[in-house]
Write a structure and sequence with these properties.
Elements (H helix, E strand, L loop, with lengths): L2 H14 L8 E5 L8 E11 L2 E17 L4 E13 L1 H4 L4 H15 L4 E13 L11 E12 L7 H14 L20
Antiparallel strand pairs: 1-2, 2-3, 3-4, 4-6, 5-6
Helix pairs in contact: 1-4, 3-4
Length: 189
């Protein structure tokens, strides 16, 4: 086993040890094949009353040779999409607040990181004419990536930060450290 594969295996073990909030259905899914020699992807969704309120994807890439643009040999890439209440969809401060959700989640999980960047997109639909009585609808999308600089064993913290930001985007209240949710875990079909 090469050193790169061993580092990725340690990171993978750390990811699989993460205990996500039970309100989120988290599964391992297909990872991109051409971005790095090693990759893993997680998908998550929060569904309430048969309506998907939030979903996302977490990808951990590893190139043992490092990538100059990453400033390291691991790269976390995330995507979060959440449905918004009508009053939030029209809030001009929403994109900054959504970015703050991610920053707070990353800060809460600790760990050194570099090369953090991303975008927040608000999608808003307002109906007119014969459809004018419909409420404003909207969603938010957060895309970001960063280079974790911690030990491979600790890279589960990056997925935990993503899941925390996803839960906040879904409207779930943050859980204080050491407190567990009483909601029954959701299982993927």
């Amino acid at each position: 086993m090469t050193t790169g594969a061993a580092s990725f295996d340690r990171a993978l073990a750390g990811l699989r040890a993460v205990r996500f909030r039970p309100e989120l259905t988290v599964d391992e899914g297909p990872a991109p094949q051409r971005l790095a020699p090693h990759a893993v992807a997680l998908t998550a969704e929060f569904v309430e009353d048969d309506e998907e309120l939030a979903s996302g994807r977490f990808v951990l890439l590893h190139d043992p040779d490092g990538v100059d643009a990453w400033e390291g040999d691991f790269r976390a890439v995330i995507f979060i999409r959440a449905t918004l209440e009508p009053d939030l969809a029209t809030d001009p401060l929403l994109t900054g607040v959504a970015w703050a959700w991610l920053m707070e989640a990353l800060e809460a999980e600790g760990g050194p990181r570099t090369a953090l960047g991303g975008t927040v997109t608000r999608v808003m639909s307002e109906s007119f004419g014969s459809l004018g009585e419909r409420d404003v609808t909207g969603s938010i999308e957060i895309r970001a990536s960063w280079t974790p600089l911690g030990e491979p064993d600790d890279l589960g913290l990056e997925a935990q930060a993503w899941a925390s930001a996803l839960a906040q985007a879904a409207g779930l209240l943050p859980l204080p450290p050491g407190v567990s949710s009483l909601v029954q875990p959701r299982r993927a079909p």
